[in-house]
Amino acid sequence: MSSGSDTSALVSAEFSPRLGGMAQPHAPGFFVVFEGGEGSGKSTQVRALAARLQAQGVDVVTTREPGGTPIAEQIRDLVLADNNADMGPRCEALLFAAARAEHVDKTIRPALQRGAVVISDRFSESSVAYQGAGRGLGMTDVAGLSAWAIQDVAPDLTFLLDAEPEVGLARALDPNRLEAEQLEFHQTLRVALHELAEADPAAHVVIAGGAAQEEIAEQVWVEVQRRLVSANQVPVPTP
Ligand SMILES: Nc1ncnc2c1ncn2[C@@H]1O[C@H](COP(=O)(O)OP(=O)(O)OP(=O)(O)O)[C@@H](O)[C@H]1O
Ligand SMILES: [Mg+2]
Q1: Which atom of ligand 1 is nearest to the CA of 47?
Q2: What is the Cβ-side half-sphere exposure of residue 177, based on CA atoms within 13 angstroms?
Q3: Ligand 1 atom closest to Cα of residue 34
């Protein structure tokens, strides 16, 4: 299955400061993102990682997309509402980008600037996969739109929780408008998220989302500790 786009075009400084290898302008904080399909365990792992960091005395901000500010949460309600099922794909893409601009400006960048670890439940790669590959707008175009919305912030580390769509959808108790899409759509998203992770392996960790949640949490914790210590941005003592 193909996502219908040339992923190599995403590895460009124009579209992604992180993929282009530019320095992170937001130091001294650290920005972690969880991506993955519906029910892959993103929210569970955001909570688990935040709790472990907080137990170490680390300043942690947990947030989500779409959302993370009052205005972005209103946009979330709009894009996920069942009665907006006929929303056009470009409208949907622009609303996600608008929410992200607000999210970065009001929540993520200020937290990173004060030195916090920011953990976001989804970020721009969800848009590139959903609107770019899933809705057929093109991954490169949606990545460019998202980069414009984000400006100078990029995740330091993205965990892709990779679960079979059937497994994740079976876990999702209350499917919203986007979750209710056909299985093939979710398989397209899975392929696209993989392509994005493979395009920048240094900043991604792919974890099998079908594993037990404690096991995944442990893998995440080992990786985050290692990265924080080597980045020398936030000291995390080994327990
Ligand atoms: N590794 C796991 N194994 C089995 N069940 C899990 C695992 N991780 C999470 N769950 C359960 O699956 C359900 C979905 O998990 P969660 O809400 O964390 O997923 P999500 O990726 O945030 O989903 P959504 O995309 O719908 O927001 C929850 O009931 C959660 O307790
Ligand atoms: Mg969730």
Answers
A1: 18
A2: 14
A3: 21
Which tops the pLDDT comparison, 59 or 6?
59
> Does residue 171 line the site of ligand 1, with CB under 6 A?
yes
Regarding the beta carbon of 154 and ligand 1, being less than 6 Å apart is answered no
The pTM of this model reads 0.88
Q: How far is the CA of 173 from the centre of ligand 1 (A)?
A: 10
Exposure of 43 in the CB half-sphere (CA atoms within 13 A)? 7
Q: Is 227 in the pocket of ligand 1 (CB under 6 A)?
A: no
Q: What string of H, E and C letters represents the secondary structure of 9-38? A: HHCCCCCCCCCCCCCCCCCCCEEEEEEECC
> Taking the CA of residue 204 as centre, how many other CA atoms within 13 Å lie in the half-sphere pointing to its CB?
19
Residue nearest atom 16 in ligand 1 by C-alpha distance: 41
> CATH code for 7-116+123-231?
3.40.50.300
For residue 97, the model assigns a pLDDT of: 98
**Is any atom of ligand 1 closer than 6 Å to the C-beta of 213?**
yes
Please report, as a single letter, which amino acid is at residue 23: A
Let me know the angle formed at the C-alpha of 202 by 229 and 106, rounded to the nearest 5 degrees: 70
Domain ranges of the chain: 7-116+123-231
What's the whole-number mean pLDDT along residues 198-218? 96
Mean pLDDT of 203-219: 96
Residue 89, SS3? Answer: helix
Which candidate, 157, 166, 139, places its Cα nearest to that of 206? 157
Q: How confident is the model at residue 24 (pLDDT cuts 50, 70, 90)?
A: low
